[in-house]
Amino acid sequence: MENTVVLSQERTQLFKDLYRGKIPKKVPIGVKFYPEFCMQYANMDLIEVQWNTEKLEEAFDKVCKDFVSDVAPISANRFISFYELLGAKTFVMGSGGFIQHPELHGLEPEEYDEFIQAPYDCIVERVLPRLYTKLDADPNTKALTLAKGMKAFYDEFANFGAIKAKMIQKYGYAVLPPASTTFCEAPYDFIADIIRGFKGISNDVRRYPQKVLEACEAVTPLMIKKGTPPVPSMDGETVIPLHMAPYMRQKDFEKFYWPTFKRTVEALAAKGQGVYLFVEHDWMRYLDYLYELPENTRMRFEYGDPKLVKEKLGKKHIISGFYPLSLLKSGTKEECIDKAKELLDILAPGGKYYFDLDKVAITVDSVNVENLKAVLEYVDEKGKY
């Protein structure tokens, strides 16, 4: 027990130093896996376990035992129980046990004015009943259904939190400050995801540009509120996955996406909260914009030129990602380790870097697990300053 306590303290210090612009003793490893990967790795039935999530402990424990990481290598952001209770169209479980997000929308173009005037009210009264069918009911039934859904939500995440706490104690992982993590979106992404949908928002920027601008402005306070955890901390984390920008013309990005997104990140940083961006797909043409964000914003890149990113952003911001999940599937062990060495040589000098993959491994067959283990062990051993 004493050894794991000391190890946890050392690993926690790695990230404290990283987030404060100091060079840590070694390159921290921040790899995480979703429950689907963990269940498959433990040879468990995805559907059965997702309806009885207490069994997740066995799967999570096996992953923690076998894969090197300085943070607990487990993550969860949705469970099927509360989606089913609410009659969700937004996230549905397929026959293979994977929760999928279909293309849909909850707001019609002619309802923009109502949304802009009172976005929260419009979401509650119009959008949610369309996307969660069991909320399309009389007030008493709606209230009872919502109560059931929220009870399931808190129960599931309390169970996950308890399991994660056990793993941290057992394996000596880094510890985040309590109540310092949450999630939000860039305002434009929030509207694109389920308010208007990918197709809808792409048409709206041409047909109703002023409405889109006003809608982004209207939801910005909601995103800032959602992105502020109960106890803000620079050692905490507000996760913001960035979706739509790579699919936009640069002039549209400058007009519709960037201003409210930048304001959201700045507002969170001003509260002392750490911000983690998952920079999805190709953001290379937007690096100069990303540089403008508050110092030590964490940016995990899915794609791009790590040398250019290090050159442009590495002195101000914290970088991770880039390691190709596809190589772990197709490459030899030597090729995989060589890639890890290449990224360490490019990104580690001067600090402000921690090791992670370009995306989360969702299925076991998306990687060769022996390659993955070898890479993590290599980075843990060789990623010293």
UniProtKB/TrEMBL annotation:
It holds the Pfam family URO-D. It comes from the Bacteria. One of its GO terms (biological process) is porphyrin-containing compound biosynthetic process. InterPro entries: UROD/MetE-like_sf (IPR038071), Uroporphyrinogen_deCOase (IPR000257). GO terms for molecular function: uroporphyrinogen decarboxylase activity. This is Uroporphyrinogen-III decarboxylase.
